[in-house]
Design a protein that fits this description.
- The chain is an alpha+beta fold.
- The chain folds into two domains: about 1-85 and about 95-125, Orthogonal Bundle (Helix Hairpins), CATH 1.10.287.90; about 130-265, Cupredoxins -  blue copper proteins (Immunoglobulin-like, Sandwich).
- It is about 40% helix and about 20% strand.
- The protein has helices at about 1-30, 45-80, 95-125, 255-265, 275-285, and strands spanning about 130-140, 140-145, 150-155, 180, 185-195, 200, 205-210, 215-220, 225-235, 245-250.
- The strands form two sheets. The chain has a five-stranded mixed beta sheet with strand order 3-2-1-5-8, with no helix packed on it. Strands 4-10-9-6-7 form a five-stranded mixed beta sheet.
- Strand 2 (about 140-145) and strand 3 (about 150-155) form a beta hairpin.
- Helix 2 packs antiparallel against helix 3.
- The chain is elongated.
Length: about 290
């Protein structure tokens, strides 16, 4: 009876988990943001995220195999070696083959997991030749994006009223100025913090890196489909930590070129007055 209950409970659990996962997949199919009842990763929009999902699935299959194997051993032990079925227990204390097996097999499993994980880490930490460089600065509590090649910078702030009671959809993710990048181009991200430690993370791109004051960290992504993708600061950075989202809009090359031309005018830096003019004005005032 106990064995049958265990089997039934396990079956019910697997069915419910599969149903919820399927629902999560259906909800998350076309979104670059979290959705209700989602139990899986956001849909990938970059090769780095493809690698992460593949590695996650590999490890999940290994975990399931180990779990089923251990469950089978438990069931066998419960049925064959309980006091009723086996009143006289064996006095065996050692089995060389068994001891070698339970040492070697876990090592082989760890090696199978380690090899692809090292490859994925290498790809993530080695930036290929970049088509575009963007500097993201985490501030209390919003993000600033600088396009150094085009010499402009802008702030990206949560799109809500002052009380945060009325927020544009998606709630707590929409911003007033999105970071815009072209599709199928390598984007190198320079990430730094202005005052405290933040973290720049966009799940659909498979990127997450700390923004540390005084230290310039680097990561990269290559968005493979157009759309708007959301992330958040992933470091507990202070009282408004929950209100500094990241929004990345991926557009075609033509649309990006047009946005870039408009952004240069909209976010143009105001140059300071020449030092000689300031000095002359100060001298005249003193006199």
């Amino acid at each position: 009876m106990l064995v049958m209950r265990l089997i039934r409970s396990a079956a019910v659990f697997l069915i419910v988990a599969a149903a919820l996962a399927a629902g999560g997949i259906a909800f998350a199919a076309d979104y670059g943001q979290p959705v209700p009842w989602q139990m899986v990763f956001q849909k990938s929009a970059a090769p780095t995220m493809d690698d992460i999902i593949w590695f996650h699935d590999l490890v999940l299959y290994i975990i399931i195999a180990i779990t089923v194997f251990v469950l089978a051993l438990l069931v066998i032990i419960i049925m064959k070696f309980n006091a009723t079925a086996n009143p006289t227990p064996s006095r065996t204390t050692h089995n060389t083959l068994l001891e070698v097996a339970w040492t070697v097999i876990p090592v082989v499993i760890l090696v199978v997991i380690a090899i692809p994980s090292f490859r994925i880490l290498f790809v993530q930490l080695n930036t290929p030749p970049a088509d575009l460089t963007i500097k993201a600065t985490g501030k209390q509590w919003y993000w600033s994006y600088s396009y150094p090649d085009s010499k402009f910078e802008f702030d990206s702030i949560l799109a809500c009223d002052q009380s945060r009671q009325k927020c544009e959809p998606p709630r707590l993710l929409a911003v007033d100025n999105e970071m815009v990048v072209p599709v199928n181009k390598v984007v190198r991200m320079h990430v730094i913090g202005a005052e405290v430690i933040h973290a720049f993370a966009v799940p659909s791109f498979g990127i997450k890196i700390d923004a540390i004051p005084g230290r310039l960290n680097e990561t990269w992504f290559k968005a493979t489909r157009e759309g708007t993708y959301y992330g958040q600061c992933s470091e507990l950075c202070g009282k408004d930590h929950a209100y500094m989202p990241i929004a990345v809009r991926v557009v075609s090359e033509q649309a990006f070129a047009q946005w870039l031309a408009d952004a240069k005018k909209k976010f143009a830096r105001i140059e300071d007055e020449p030092a000689t003019a300031v000095a002359a004005a100060g001298g005249a005032k003193t006199e």
